[in-house]
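Q: Here's a chain of 167 amino acids. Please give me its 3D structure as tokens.
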Amino acid sequence: MRRIRIAATCALALGLWACSRGAGPLPSGAALGGLADIEQPESYTPATLYTYMDGGADFYVNQGLSRLYVRRYGRGNESFILELYEMKNASGASRVYQSGRRPNAEKELSSGCLASVTPTEIQVARGSYYLVGRNEDPMASQGDALIGVCRNMLNRLPGPCAFAAKK
């Protein structure tokens, strides 16, 4: 019985350590256009990223992940998740974007920045950040809300866009 309690205590401590709470550069929902904060923000390091994603963590770590910030927002019956990958440098963020972008779905999201935009997901890289915004409803149609949330967040990030819109 004592071993079970020790194991349970260790598992709880590891879980709390792996998923630290911290918004980092992700603002409150109110600052992103009147959204509600659905859950507490989360952050992950290269050592704890595996607790957030089931498969694929090695790719981000190998590209120079410093930290991942995750926050869930909502408005009405819509809910969104923002994942902000802070990379060690801009080339790491650009490589991650290039690996997942959908070239036939790229649009100018904000201030000359090209983003991969689908009805349920937006991907964009700016400076040393790679941003992914998702509508958590997989059947969602293209709406202005997800675009607005991602555009607002993108405009808060420093540095040049990884891919600029052609003029």
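Q: Can you summarize the key feature?
A: Residues 1-20 have pLDDT under 50 and may be disordered.
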